[in-house]
Amino acid sequence: MNRLQTAIAALHEADALADDRSRRSRVHPAARLIVCMAFLLVTISFPKYELSGLLSMSLYLIVTAIWEELSFWRGFCRLKYIFITLVLIGGANLFYDRDVVFCMGMLSVTGGMVWMATLFVKGALTVYAAYFLMMTTGIGRICMALRRVGVPGGAVTVLLLTYRYLIVLLKETQRMMQAYTLRAAGQRGIHIRAWGSFAGMLLLRSMDRAQDVYDSMLLRGYDNEFPYESSEDKSSFGISFLYTVLWLAAFCLLRTVPLFRLVGGLF
What we know:
The chain is mainly alpha-helical. The chain has helices at about 5-25, 30-45, 50-55, 60-70, 70-80, 80-90, 95, 110-135, 140-150, 155-185, 195-220, 235-255, 260-265, and strands spanning about 100-105, 105-110. It contains 13 helices and 2 strands, in the order αααααααββαααααα.
């Protein structure tokens, strides 16, 4: 299975698992969205040298992973290129901040090292939070939650169609790659002289496919708004409210109290 097939299969699997979890959950998608957004805001508010306090925010991800049976390792395999990018971006801080903050034996830890670690942890926590939200809620229910909190319908529709059309784009790319491989037997990849024509053909095929999809939507009664509500929604207002309040209170506590530092001081 090549990379395109793997990506398509991963998107279908993620949608199926998210739909199954959402049907069984008693927490409303809007509550999950509010908690996730609050987590992102609190996480990015930590100063660049506050690494111990930042690590305490991982409790939200650990509890969510255990409760929803999500795998950190599987998420890392799917998002590894994002983590590599975070390392490359954070590595630049090593050359800008060379002041020694503290020493660990013979090792002198500079401010750039701490800043790099903080930036990576911030990025990892926010990426995992968005990934867990997608895996537990699904794009359809996330869009419904966005409409509930007041996001304009046009923006929500663009987000939903962009995600849905990503699979269509990948399938079109896969067909073109197969056609190119059959015409260039024994050649690895696409020759540099064919990059321009390949990209142009992909654009034209994508525009034709997009027009077909839009015509099909109109024939099915599309009126610039999707019916996000589901008759199978089993969410409870009381549980959703309690879920939101408890996590917001926990975030406020973790932001003000250095939990990991206090626990480390006990030992």
